[in-house]
Structure of Enoyl-CoA hydratase:
Amino acid sequence: MFIINRLSKLNKKSFIFKKLSTKPTQEHTQELVKVDKLTNDDKGIVIISLNRPGSKNAINKHMIDQLLNTFRQFYNDNDTKAVIFRSLVNGIFCAGADLKERLKLPSSEVGKRVSEIRNLANVIENVPVPVIAAVDGAALGGGFELALSCDFIVCASNSIFGLVETRLGIIPGAGGTQRLARAVGGSLAKELVYTARLFNAQQALQYGAVNRVSEQNDEGTSAYKCALQIAREILPNGPLAVKMAKKAISHGQQVDINNGCAIEEFCYSQIIPTKDRIEGLLAFVEKRKPNYTGS
């Protein structure tokens, strides 16, 4: 009952977002994160693209700020049905934290910066709608951790993954020790983190770290196209139902089966009084496509 009471209070106001100070430097005015809202038949799909080519999308302070501000908007957005998180830099999803920036930080600031990336990963994970990571290249360290914070990962055949922090005398700090273990199992996660081992797309599929692997194309966008196809399959479905399904699965897998089923029951109860539920039933009986309004 405690879990259900907590879940019933869970809404966009429940998440605590740390205030990240920003100073108006030249790079901070640059667009390190590009947002594209698709239109026409793809209306409802939003593309979030990393775009820091000179540094292989290394995560610095300004990228954290821009990503956080971008993903926070989905907590108050009823128009978005699915999000694709990708890179515009050929061959790279994200190389991890900006180590050059990290080296300049005083020891007293390092923990704060790591905490900011961890907070970002949590914000991504708790976006109400599905977030698909499209990895067309290398996802290393913090970059892999951000991908793991999405609902699932699809990748191209040339992709490389790894939590390589122990090579640097540190550990994954943006939830990687937790999310990788939940994705592939504790024993394998320990082996991969202890050894800082890199692994390829087929191994990632075998381990359970990614959902799909597609052969890379000449444009280097194979994973993006795969993610777009999945997002298009999500679009026709009831938006409230998809949100509640995400909540039920995400929260339910953190607890035992009995409490998980109680969470599912709670989420189902949120759908019963909606117009969308009636519309779905009527559309089925009348043999037509449903017209969901998200209400």
Summary: Confidence is low (pLDDT under 50) at residues 1-25.
